[in-house]
Design brief:
The protein is of the alpha/beta class and about 270 residues long. Helix content is about 40%, strand content about 25%. It is built from 11 helices and 10 strands. The radius of gyration is 19 Å and the shape is globular.
Length: about 270
């Protein structure tokens, strides 16, 4: 069997006395999509940031994280910078705060290219224009500033930045946050299309269980820093075994039922 592209073994993250992630382990297979779901504060984003070594210095981390069989937690800052962007890329939750407001979007894509490749400005500009076109943005937007673009277009720019150096693994941390329903669908369809085209693996963090069911091969369910259930996406979401997973699924609003109020996780867990 092929070695997984990502292996997380007994990962633990602590901030002073607060345990954010508690001894979790999982593998991500090549060219597959794995989704992490759970309430806000369950440890999803901390897990993702641990992979890229982006946690603050106050964090205490233990365990092992292997990317293409290379141990990341023991890598030097220089080695991690080589992995970020070219090996593993990440799309963060809010594009307006992730993009630099004083540089054009073209310059920000070019910066990523020059960080990882020895290339002329002319060639990097050509690559940037190609990256823009791949995410459905016209080349004349190269000189636009983030505030001149809509939320959906800014998220497309974030995707272009993440994918311009052709990473093998993409981490998408709630990539449709703050977007309307139609734009969210377009962004996810774009991500999945590019993933298939480039042969990437995708680690998706999302609260949208319907989205997770459509695009994921594997699901990890986290609660209070613990991995409470994992398995094939279709099996976990159609026949959940853990009470917390069942509670998450029970909270989904339905167009077929008229309720005075939406059920909460606590409602289900207290039954």
């Amino acid at each position: 069997m092929e070695t997984p592209i990502l292996q997380v073994q007994h990962l633990g993250v602590r901030f002073d006395e607060v345990v954010a992630v508690n001894n979790i382990s999982f593998d991500l297979q090549r060219k597959s999509t794995c989704a992490i779901v759970g309430e806000s504060g369950s440890g999803k984003s901390v897990t993702a940031l641990s992979i890229l070594g982006l946690l603050p210095k106050t964090a205490s981390i233990e365990g092992q994280i292997y990317f293409q069989q290379k141990e990341l937690l023991k890598s030097s800052p220089y080695e991690l910078r080589k992995v970020r962007g070219s090996g593993i890329a990440m799309i963060f939750q809010e594009p307006m705060t992730s993009l630099n407001p004083v540089f054009t979007v073209g310059e920000q894509i070019q910066e990523t290219i020059h960080t990882h490749q020895t290339i002329s400005n002319r060639s990097s500009k050509q690559k940037t224009v190609t990256a823009l076109q791949e995410v459905g943005i016209q080349a004349d937007r190269f000189s636009a500033y983030p505030h001149e673009l809509s939320g959906g277009m800014r998220q497309r720019i974030m995707i272009a930045i993440a994918l311009v150096c052709k990473p093998q693994l993409l981490i998408a941390d709630e990539p449709t946050t703050a977007l309307d329903a139609t734009t969210s669908i377009q962004i996810m369809e774009l991500l999945i299309t590019l993933k298939e085209k480039m042969g990437m693996s995708l680690l998706l963090i999302s609260h949208d269980l319907d989205l997770v069911a459509r695009v994921s091969d594997q699901v990890l369910v986290m609660k209070d820093g613990n991995l409470v259930e994992t398995g094939d996406a279709s099996e976990v979401l159609s026949a959940a075994k853990h009470p917390y997973t069942k509670a998450l699924l029970a909270c989904k609003p339905s167009i077929h039922k008229k309720l005075r109020r939406l059920p909460t996780i606590e409602d289900t867990l207290q039954r």
